[in-house]
Amino acid sequence: xxxxxxxxxxxxxxxxxxxRFLILFSLIAMVSILMVYMAGLKISQDLEGEVKPTFVFxxxxxxxxxxxxxxxxxxxxxxxxxLILGFxxxxxxxxxxTLSKLLAQPIxxxxxxxxxxxxxxxxxxxxxxxxxxxxxxxxxxTLGVVPGAEELYRIFFYLLVSLVYVCFWLGVAILFSILFRxxxxxxxxxxxxxxxxxxxxxxxxxxxxxxAPPLSGESQTGxxxxxxxxxxTLSLVSPMRMYLESMAVIVxxxxxxxxxxxxVGRNEDISLSRFAGPLSLDQSLLMVFxxxxxxxxxxxxxxxxxxxxxxxxxxxxx
Amino acid sequence: MSLDQALRPxxxxxxxxxxxxxxxxxxxxxxxxxxxxxxxxxxxLGPNGAGKTTTLLMLLGLTEPTSGTxxxxxxxxxxxxxxxxxxxxxxxENMGFYRDLDARQMLxxxxxxxxxxxxxxxxxxxxxxxxxxxxxxxGKKIGAxxxxxxxxxxxxxxxxxQPRIAFLDEPTIGLDPDGxxxxxxxxxxxxxxxxxxxxxxxxxxxxxxxVCTRIGIMIGGxxxxxxxxxxxxxxxxxxxxxxxxLEQIYxxxxxxxxx
Lengths: 318, 259
Known about the structure:
Strand content of chain A: under 5%
Shape of chain B: globular
Radius of gyration of chain B: 19 Å
Largest sheet of chain B: 6 strands, mixed
Shape of chain A: globular
Number of helices of chain B: 9
Strand order of the largest sheet of chain B: 5-6-7-3-8-9
Structural class of chain A: mainly alpha
Radius of gyration of chain A: 22 Å
Helix content of chain B: 25-40%
Number of strands of chain B: 9
Order of helices and strands of chain B: EEEHEHEHHHEHEHEEHH
Number of strands of chain A: 0
Structural class of chain B: alpha/beta
Order of helices and strands of chain A: HHHHHHHHHHHHHH
Oligomer: heterodimer
Strand content of chain B: 15-25%
Helix content of chain A: over 70%
């Protein structure tokens, strides 16, 4: 236990003092705070004249002030945090000869990989929490609205699922750092898998789906529905899609489906809500339970594979 | 630190029986039978790739032997690697260090991994740095250390741990003459004053001749000769019957095995 603690502590302090992490953190903090500030301005504009808007605070995360909303930003660039923290975690120690020194000490071998993973999880947790707290504070100032209890719960779940999502990518990076001896190779492999799952799969899904021909006797709407359904099915391979779907529902109580066929603007959304009340938190969670389970499962799978591969490595090649 | 007393009195500190390791078709260590008594400084000689490091890794439980058994400090490194590693200090060849730590932080980390209470560890670390002559530079990052300084820091780690058995793999490589002398002095003192058993791998035969009580020569994975210097000399005479130096004996064995 003390070995695990020692390794985790050392890794965390390495992360926090590395310039790599500082650059990344300041970049992400800057962009997300800017985005939320813009979103805040836009929300105030949109809600002008609105009699009794609900869940205004959560709109900070979903409203697109400049380009796209924060939730999507984390979906795209959150993985980079995980990848950058993990891509050289094991193979750097191999190459510098510190791994065999570590293992010559009276510690179990899994303390090394557990400590590295735990340190990554802690750093990611601190990073995400810091950013969300900054956003919340900024939201208080720009909107002048205090979040309600339910909104805070939802933000908490948003944080939790985001943590799982980013940690999955940390797991991917650690796996690559075990599989590849060269740091450059593992970095490239990490980036390639990120690009593949985050950009190529959504593109390929939409291209593949729109290639489907209309069936004879099918109505226009039926065809559009079918293509959209097909696209969704194809893109389910991507963890990013899973994350986005669960986030959309968790952060937006007015949503009652994980996939929106038509993008609804904020105003229409609010006017719709006059007819349909918001979902309660447990209903929202229940709706995206499969997506969340999927994210947790791939995280566990990824870590499990890394663990087994690492435990079985012949030490001489270390 | 409380010592694990698994070793029975009179039992050799290190003992192997037909210890072998194969990597595919290549035989790295071939039926090695080695016995090192407690408090002995055993010189382990052999050309590069003779299987010395592989043997050390098997003795530490870091590599699984293909066949045969080993006992270190009365324990089986295969079954109880943690207990073995608690009693063995290992100075690797080409050892790695965390470049962003300074010497004190490195020693503190090693102490923590060995479960040492921190006030005691701090004192021991200072004493170790003092003994290897690094106390003045202990605040510098290891990344800025020269090869010799790193080597000395490696020895400081062993002094900190105060194990019963030390495996030293090429400890004097990259050291200046003063550093070498100091390193050998520390090794001799450890064996003499603390009764530490030392397994010393080296190519520098003069040094081995100076500090080792017994010597084993390993070539191509096999132990071709073993004994005190006098015993080795008795086995190999010069052409005119003169006494050979260890270097000459070693070269004889080496040439015999390669023909």
